[in-house]
Structure formats: structure tokens, C-alpha cells
Amino acid sequence: MYFEYGETELSYLRQKDKRLCAVIDRIGHIDRTVDTDLFSSVVHHIVGQQISTKAQATVWGRMQDALGEVNAETILAAGVPKLQSLGMTFRKAEYITDFADKVHTGAFDLGAVERMSDKDAIRALSALKGIGVWTAEMILLFCMQRPDIFSYDDLAIQRGLRMVYHHRKIDRKLFEKYRRRFHPYCSVTSLYLWAVAGGAIPEMRDYQPRAKKEEKQ
Hints:
α3 (38-48) packs across α9 (133-142) and α10 (155-165) packs across α12. The protein has helices at residues 7-16, 18-27, 38-48, 53-67, 72-85, 90-105, 110-115, 118-126, 133-142, 155-165, 172-182, 186-197. By secondary structure, the chain is mainly α. The chain contains twelve helices and no strands. The radius of gyration is 19 Å and the shape is elongated.
């Protein structure tokens, strides 16, 4: 299943910004996989923190094989040592079992989070152990398919903005200007900026001074 968007979002963004319009026309439709189950999405994101996409897929595959279905009950039945044996750190195993316990006891209401505003959902998710604001934003986009997610903490989005708009630096004030421009379809904009940052348009370059570049974008 892919993030859902179509001509309504694209037409709006094309009219709002000529440079983004050119990017959209050049790249075409982007298929980005989503996981619509909020529980497994939270667990998946905790598993994937600070490791490669390939390593995340390996550990996630082991979890699915070992647990059958990844839910609060199967995680609590497995326990921290079993989860750790699947290839994750002790701390991540603790975060995941803590989350499972909160869901199991009703201390964390998944259904309530799905009904919250973006701001409140991000606040609720980032209050969980192991979930920061950036991770919460990614869950809103790639699980809940919220249409207006634009993460200042995402280095690749900042890189994409620099590449498309020829900025040397993206500070908070400039970022918010773009957020207002692309509202209410910031999530689709994010997809295209990620693609640009990843090299989808080879002739585009990053205008950030080399000496100040992050080692890993």
C-alpha cells in the first residue's frame, strides 16, 4: 500500500510554486510504502532507529517470523530477552515492551491518537519511550497518512529545499515560510524533496557550503 495522493494535491502545489511544479513534472508520481497499523508502525520505527534500512528490514523480518503477528500480546509474551535475541539493542527491546504494556493496559489509546490533531498526535507519540518528535512525524506521514507533515528535523527535507531553491542554509524562519506555502499538502511536498535529496534529478546540487555539511544527510 502506498501513500495516497493525486491530482488535487499536485495541481495545488504546481500552482503555488513554479520550482516545485518543475520537480513534480520531472519526477512523476512517487510510490512510498505505508503501514496503516499504528501499533506495528511504532514498533517498526523504534526498531529502525540509528540502523540502516537493510538492518531494520532484517530485524523486522525476524520479529514477524518469531512472533507471527506483531501486537501487544505477542511482544509481552516474548519479553525483553527474546526481542533482544532477534538483533535489537536491550534498550530498544525495553522501549518496545514498555509501549506494548501501555497499549495492553489501556494507558496508551491507539484509537484516540488516530483521532487527534497532528499536533496532539505528535505530542502523544513523542511522550513514549524511544519516540522523538521526528519519529512521531514520520509515523503520522507513513502510517496515518496525514496530508500536511513537514519535518524541520529531517535533514533530507532540508537538503531538498536547499537543492530546489538554491539556499545555503535552511533556518526555522525560512522553513516555516515554505511550510505555509505548501500547506495543506506538505506531506506530498516532503515526498518530492526526499526524492530530490536522494538524487532523483542528477543535475541538482546542494548549495550548502561544503565545510559545514553534515557527515551524513
